[in-house]
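Re: weekly structure request thread

Next one in the queue (206 aa):
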Amino acid sequence: MIYDVIRLADGEKVGSVDLVDDIFGLEPRADILHRVVRWQRNRAQAGTHKVKTRSETNFSKKKIYRQKGTGGARHGDRNAPIFRKGGVYKGPVPRSHGHGLPKKVRALGLRHALSSKAMMGKLVILDKAESEGKTKTLAGQLEKFKWRRTLVIDGSVIDEGFARAAKNIEDIDILPTAGANVYDIMRRDTLVLTMEGVKALEARLK
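Done, posted below.
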Protein backbone atom coordinates (compact mmCIF):
# COMPACT_ATOMS: atom_id res chain seq x y z
CA MET A 1 0.00 0.00 0.00
CA ILE A 2 1.73 3.20 -1.23
CA TYR A 3 1.04 6.41 0.67
CA ASP A 4 2.22 9.95 -0.04
CA VAL A 5 4.43 11.57 2.59
CA ILE A 6 3.69 15.27 3.03
CA ARG A 7 5.46 18.16 4.71
CA LEU A 8 3.76 19.90 7.63
CA ALA A 9 4.87 23.41 6.70
CA ASP A 10 3.17 23.60 3.29
CA GLY A 11 1.40 20.28 2.68
CA GLU A 12 3.62 19.45 -0.29
CA LYS A 13 4.47 15.86 -1.15
CA VAL A 14 8.05 15.04 -0.23
CA GLY A 15 8.06 11.31 -0.91
CA SER A 16 6.12 8.10 -0.51
CA VAL A 17 6.06 5.11 1.81
CA ASP A 18 4.99 1.50 1.28
CA LEU A 19 2.82 0.58 4.28
CA VAL A 20 2.73 -3.05 5.39
CA ASP A 21 -0.56 -4.70 4.40
CA ASP A 22 -0.61 -6.90 7.51
CA ILE A 23 -0.83 -3.73 9.62
CA PHE A 24 -2.52 -1.11 7.45
CA GLY A 25 -4.37 -3.22 4.88
CA LEU A 26 -6.60 -5.53 6.92
CA GLU A 27 -10.38 -5.72 6.64
CA PRO A 28 -11.44 -4.03 9.92
CA ARG A 29 -13.40 -6.24 12.30
CA ALA A 30 -15.82 -4.46 14.63
CA ASP A 31 -15.81 -7.34 17.13
CA ILE A 32 -12.04 -7.14 17.65
CA LEU A 33 -12.13 -3.35 17.99
CA HIS A 34 -15.02 -3.59 20.46
CA ARG A 35 -13.20 -6.14 22.63
CA VAL A 36 -10.05 -4.04 22.84
CA VAL A 37 -11.86 -0.74 23.49
CA ARG A 38 -13.98 -2.39 26.20
CA TRP A 39 -10.81 -3.81 27.79
CA GLN A 40 -9.19 -0.36 27.77
CA ARG A 41 -12.18 1.49 29.21
CA ASN A 42 -12.76 -1.11 31.93
CA ARG A 43 -9.13 -0.83 33.01
CA ALA A 44 -9.48 2.95 33.18
CA GLN A 45 -12.59 2.84 35.36
CA ALA A 46 -11.74 4.00 38.87
CA GLY A 47 -13.81 1.47 40.79
CA THR A 48 -13.81 3.67 43.90
CA HIS A 49 -17.58 3.52 44.53
CA LYS A 50 -18.38 2.61 48.12
CA VAL A 51 -21.41 2.38 50.42
CA LYS A 52 -21.60 1.75 54.16
CA THR A 53 -22.59 -1.63 55.45
CA ARG A 54 -24.52 -2.10 58.67
CA SER A 55 -21.24 -2.40 60.57
CA GLU A 56 -20.18 1.08 59.38
CA THR A 57 -23.32 3.18 59.94
CA ASN A 58 -23.36 5.32 63.05
CA PHE A 59 -26.33 4.17 65.10
CA SER A 60 -26.41 2.44 68.48
CA LYS A 61 -26.23 -1.34 68.46
CA LYS A 62 -28.80 -1.44 71.25
CA LYS A 63 -32.06 -3.26 70.50
CA ILE A 64 -34.46 -0.49 69.49
CA TYR A 65 -37.51 -1.86 71.37
CA ARG A 66 -38.60 -4.98 73.17
CA GLN A 67 -39.08 -8.19 71.27
CA LYS A 68 -42.75 -8.80 72.02
CA GLY A 69 -45.86 -6.82 72.76
CA THR A 70 -45.35 -3.80 70.50
CA GLY A 71 -47.56 -5.02 67.66
CA GLY A 72 -44.72 -4.39 65.21
CA ALA A 73 -42.01 -6.42 63.56
CA ARG A 74 -39.21 -7.81 65.69
CA HIS A 75 -36.20 -5.55 65.09
CA GLY A 76 -32.90 -5.63 66.89
CA ASP A 77 -30.55 -3.06 65.31
CA ARG A 78 -31.16 0.43 63.93
CA ASN A 79 -28.29 -0.15 61.48
CA ALA A 80 -30.26 -2.82 59.60
CA PRO A 81 -30.68 -2.25 55.83
CA ILE A 82 -34.48 -2.06 56.20
CA PHE A 83 -34.25 1.31 57.96
CA ARG A 84 -33.65 4.68 56.37
CA LYS A 85 -29.94 5.60 56.57
CA GLY A 86 -29.17 2.08 57.72
CA GLY A 87 -26.43 -0.01 56.18
CA VAL A 88 -26.63 -1.12 52.55
CA TYR A 89 -26.84 -4.84 51.84
CA LYS A 90 -24.35 -6.10 49.25
CA GLY A 91 -23.62 -2.59 47.95
CA PRO A 92 -20.63 -1.65 45.79
CA VAL A 93 -17.14 -1.72 47.30
CA PRO A 94 -13.81 -0.56 45.83
CA ARG A 95 -12.62 -3.00 43.18
CA SER A 96 -10.94 -3.21 39.83
CA HIS A 97 -13.18 -3.40 36.75
CA GLY A 98 -10.32 -4.63 34.57
CA HIS A 99 -10.32 -8.01 32.91
CA GLY A 100 -7.78 -10.00 30.97
CA LEU A 101 -7.24 -9.82 27.22
CA PRO A 102 -4.52 -11.79 25.38
CA LYS A 103 -1.61 -9.75 24.04
CA LYS A 104 -2.22 -11.14 20.56
CA VAL A 105 -5.79 -9.77 20.57
CA ARG A 106 -4.56 -6.36 21.77
CA ALA A 107 -1.99 -6.23 18.97
CA LEU A 108 -4.60 -7.40 16.45
CA GLY A 109 -6.95 -4.66 17.64
CA LEU A 110 -4.28 -2.01 17.00
CA ARG A 111 -3.70 -3.39 13.51
CA HIS A 112 -7.42 -3.25 12.76
CA ALA A 113 -7.68 0.32 14.11
CA LEU A 114 -4.85 1.46 11.83
CA SER A 115 -6.36 -0.42 8.88
CA SER A 116 -9.74 1.18 9.59
CA LYS A 117 -8.31 4.70 9.31
CA ALA A 118 -6.46 3.77 6.13
CA MET A 119 -9.59 2.25 4.57
CA MET A 120 -11.68 5.35 5.38
CA GLY A 121 -9.07 7.67 3.90
CA LYS A 122 -8.45 9.25 7.29
CA LEU A 123 -4.75 8.34 7.51
CA VAL A 124 -2.09 10.99 6.82
CA ILE A 125 1.68 10.46 6.74
CA LEU A 126 3.98 13.37 7.68
CA ASP A 127 7.72 13.44 7.13
CA LYS A 128 8.14 14.81 10.67
CA ALA A 129 6.14 16.64 13.34
CA GLU A 130 8.37 19.51 14.36
CA SER A 131 7.62 23.11 15.27
CA GLU A 132 9.36 26.20 16.61
CA GLY A 133 6.94 26.12 19.53
CA LYS A 134 4.56 28.89 18.41
CA THR A 135 0.88 27.97 18.69
CA LYS A 136 -0.20 30.58 16.12
CA THR A 137 2.23 29.25 13.51
CA LEU A 138 1.21 25.63 14.00
CA ALA A 139 -2.50 26.49 14.04
CA GLY A 140 -2.11 28.23 10.68
CA GLN A 141 -0.35 25.20 9.22
CA LEU A 142 -3.02 22.81 10.49
CA GLU A 143 -5.83 25.03 9.18
CA LYS A 144 -4.63 24.42 5.62
CA PHE A 145 -5.24 20.70 6.03
CA LYS A 146 -8.77 21.16 7.48
CA TRP A 147 -8.08 18.44 10.03
CA ARG A 148 -10.68 18.02 12.76
CA ARG A 149 -10.39 15.85 15.87
CA THR A 150 -6.85 14.76 15.05
CA LEU A 151 -4.47 12.31 16.70
CA VAL A 152 -0.77 12.63 15.88
CA ILE A 153 1.45 9.62 16.61
CA ASP A 154 5.16 10.35 16.49
CA GLY A 155 8.18 8.13 17.12
CA SER A 156 9.55 7.12 20.50
CA VAL A 157 10.05 10.79 21.45
CA ILE A 158 7.72 13.72 20.70
CA ASP A 159 9.30 16.95 19.48
CA GLU A 160 9.19 19.38 22.41
CA GLY A 161 8.41 22.43 20.27
CA PHE A 162 5.56 20.66 18.47
CA ALA A 163 4.05 19.45 21.77
CA ARG A 164 4.27 22.95 23.26
CA ALA A 165 2.68 24.58 20.20
CA ALA A 166 -0.14 22.01 19.99
CA LYS A 167 -0.99 22.16 23.69
CA ASN A 168 -3.41 25.08 23.25
CA ILE A 169 -4.96 23.90 19.98
CA GLU A 170 -8.39 22.33 20.36
CA ASP A 171 -9.05 18.79 19.16
CA ILE A 172 -5.48 17.68 18.57
CA ASP A 173 -3.76 14.99 20.62
CA ILE A 174 -0.15 13.83 20.40
CA LEU A 175 1.17 10.44 21.46
CA PRO A 176 4.51 8.67 21.20
CA THR A 177 4.43 5.27 19.52
CA ALA A 178 4.46 3.51 22.88
CA GLY A 179 1.17 5.24 23.74
CA ALA A 180 -0.65 4.30 20.52
CA ASN A 181 -3.91 2.57 21.42
CA VAL A 182 -7.18 1.54 19.81
CA TYR A 183 -9.48 3.81 21.83
CA ASP A 184 -7.64 7.05 21.04
CA ILE A 185 -7.26 6.13 17.37
CA MET A 186 -10.93 5.28 16.89
CA ARG A 187 -12.35 8.29 18.74
CA ARG A 188 -10.50 10.77 16.52
CA ASP A 189 -11.50 11.55 12.96
CA THR A 190 -8.01 11.90 11.47
CA LEU A 191 -4.93 9.84 12.26
CA VAL A 192 -1.58 11.47 11.46
CA LEU A 193 1.58 9.36 11.58
CA THR A 194 5.10 10.63 11.19
CA MET A 195 7.65 8.54 9.32
CA GLU A 196 9.28 7.74 12.65
CA GLY A 197 5.86 6.69 13.95
CA VAL A 198 5.26 4.40 10.96
CA LYS A 199 8.61 2.67 11.42
CA ALA A 200 8.11 2.25 15.16
CA LEU A 201 4.56 0.90 14.76
CA GLU A 202 5.64 -1.58 12.12
CA ALA A 203 8.49 -2.76 14.35
CA ARG A 204 6.11 -3.04 17.32
CA LEU A 205 3.42 -5.00 15.47
CA LYS A 206 5.51 -7.32 13.31
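The longest strand covers residues 13-18. The two ends are 16 Å apart (CA to CA).
Next request, please.
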